Amino acid sequence: PTAQPAPGQPTAKPAPGVPTFSFTPQNGGPGTRVSLNGWNFAANGPIVVRLGMPNPLGEVLVSATVSAQGTWAAELVMPDRLPSGDIIQAGSLNLVVMNDANQALAAAPFAFMPATQPVPPRSAAVQTVRDMLSAHKSGGDAGAFVSADLYARLVKGETLPQVLGMTNSALESFDVGEPLDRPADALFIPAQLTFSDLQEAREFTVVLQNNTWKVAGSNRPVGDMPHPTPDGQEVHMALTADVNNDGVIENISYRTGRVKITTPTGFNDPNIVAVVVAQELFVQQGTLPNTRGLLHLNPVALNNEHERLLLMGQGEEPNPGFLVIVYGGEQHSLYITPIASDGTPGNQSVRAVWSAEADAYVLG
């Protein structure tokens, strides 16, 4: 017989001859005790219950012997992992009743809710960077310490220096610092690297994946704010005004590069003072040589005058460009939306606001 869905305790007598079972509770997480009852099964025969995703797999959760009347009862404890060792994710899985010939007799969905896991400490992120650099220094496999996208690139044949933008020279020693205090979902962990032919400071971006810290990228630390030199690409002036209400005139300039956009950019909000499609954007005060750089957006990062606010790209895969909407007045801010290579703006935006208290742009 084929498996038949049997969700929950039946409200009517099961159809004669159709194997049916019910269980309670119908949802839960690891360690939940589930009581099961079955009807219309082959008398005096053995049954087992397995997880189904949706097809049955893995070890037996519980077994029972069917009575002469075709009924059985059992209790199982929900595991937290699949037979592969992977943690069971939230969603529906099946409880599948099978006979001793491994034929599925009946199945019903169970709403699985993983146990809430505490966020690992920041010190574990620092250790992840150390472990990755140790593996690289000794010629070992650093794949266990990087994010899923970087690991996929390593599998395809790229090296760790390639995916992280580091030199190919031999790493001789390193010193990893504590995470920088920045308002972002990721952690930025500084390190001083000594190679066979040079020394280099880097900041490693570390993110949570499956509740484990993974290295997702690296960049050189933010240095002096660059000036918008043409470098073969025309620089445009978007706005000259006191946009942050500090009594000083700011210049917002940008370089378009090769960025394109396929979505109309018409806006009628009276608070919008500029809309820019750019590969690079500068917010500055004054004129050379006394220019003060307040904000610099490039395909890799968003930086204020003193530090990196947010990583915007990953080394070899920087963002093609951005749609930047500048709001003036008391609510002055810049809404920054990455643009994909096909010209489509992304679904998420970053908001940079002026903080009079910090005398700097911060993430809002």
Structure commentary:
- The structure is a single chain.
- The chain is mainly beta.
- The chain has 3 domains: 20-112, Immunoglobulin-like, CATH 2.60.40; 122-219, Nuclear Transport Factor 2, Chain: A; 235-363, no CATH class.
- Helix content is 8%, strand content 42%.
- The protein has 3 helices and 23 strands.
- It has helices at 122-138, 148-155, 160-164; strands at 20-24, 27-28, 33-39, 46-52, 56-65, 72-77, 91-99, 104-112, 171-176, 187-195, 199-209, 212-219, 235-241, 250-255, 272-278, 280-285, 292-297, 301-304, 308-311, 321-327, 333-339, 350-355, 360-363.
- The protein has a 6-stranded antiparallel sheet with strand order 13-14-16-17-18-19, with no helix packed on it.
- The longest helix has 17 residues, at 122-138.
- It is elongated, with a radius of gyration of 29 Å.
- It starts with 19 loop residues before the first strand and ends with a strand.
